[in-house]
Amino acid sequence: MKNNNKNKKMTLTENEISSSREEEKHSVIGSCFKTLLEIAAVIIIIFIIILLVNKDKDSNQQKAPVENSTTTQEQVSSEKKENTTTPIEDKTTETKTTTKATTGSGLIEMVKVSDQTNSGVVEESKSTISINTAELAVSVYVSDAKKGSSVSAKLVYSDTGESSNAVTNTTSENGDIISNFSFTKPAGGWAAGNYKVMIVIDGGTPKEQSFQIK
User: What DSSP element (H or E) covers 97?
Assistant: First the structure.
């Protein structure tokens, strides 16, 4: 009987030891698993932080080109405005020139200069005339002329500003007319260089025609 009781006690002790070991194993496994979860959580948090930082960098980089694009569009818009304005100024200048050549006595349509005429009328103007020319011919084409208006012509040597005395013709009829003038070569000959003829109707603003003598 005593031996049986001893055996029972020993068996109980072994079972308790075995149970205790299993509990320790479970405790260690649980502790390891918990540690792994904590490590995994830390890794996830770090990964999320890295993603957020990279996202901020990308958004900043995308904003910069947008600003540059806006600046470029503003510059292009400004250049377009400048280019649009320039032709308007040119048109205004042309309109003023036309208005100056217009008087109540008629409109100077054309001024032609040459060393050749057809019955005293210059039909084709020349930009360069020979220095040996004996006489310069000038024809002034006037529209809506009034009878009795004065058409004056003056030859100017542009390089020095010297000019001849004005020569005046009086219109004999109303309507479209051609008023002809001539300038004879000076005694010392023509000076080579730039010239212009200035035409005025009844003291209005002159109209000019430039040419060269070579």
Answer: helix 2-100
Q: Which are the contacts of 1, defined by CB distance < 8 A and separation ≥ 6? A: none
Q: What angle do CA 61, 62, 66 make, to 5 degrees?
A: 120
Can you say whether the dihedral through the CA atoms of 193, 139, 199, 182 is positive or negative? positive
Cβ-count burial of 132 within 10 angstroms (0-12 exposed, 13-18 middle, 19+ buried)? exposed
To 10 degrees, the CA torsion angle through 125, 135, 131, 156?
Answer: -70
The 10 Å CB-count burial string (b at 16+, else e) for 62-82 is eeeeeeeeeeeeeeeeeeeee
Euclidean distance between CA atoms 214 and 78, whole angstroms: 47
Pick among 1.10.3210.10, 3.40.50.1100, 2.60.40.2550, 3.30.413.10: CATH of 104-213: 2.60.40.2550
**Predicted confidence (pLDDT) per residue in 19-78, tens digit:** 677 777 777 787 888 888 889 888 999 988 888 888 777 666 665 444 444 444 555 445
Other CB atoms within a 10 A radius of the CB of residue 91 amount to 10
- Give per-residue pLDDT as tens, 159-187: 999 999 999 999 999 999 999 999 999 99
| Residue predicted with more confidence, 139 or 89 | 139
Question: Are the beta carbons of 125 and 86 closer than 8 angstroms?
Answer: no
Nearest to 139 by CA among 118, 163, 160, 165: 118
Nearest Cα to Cα of residue 108 among 169, 195, 156: 169
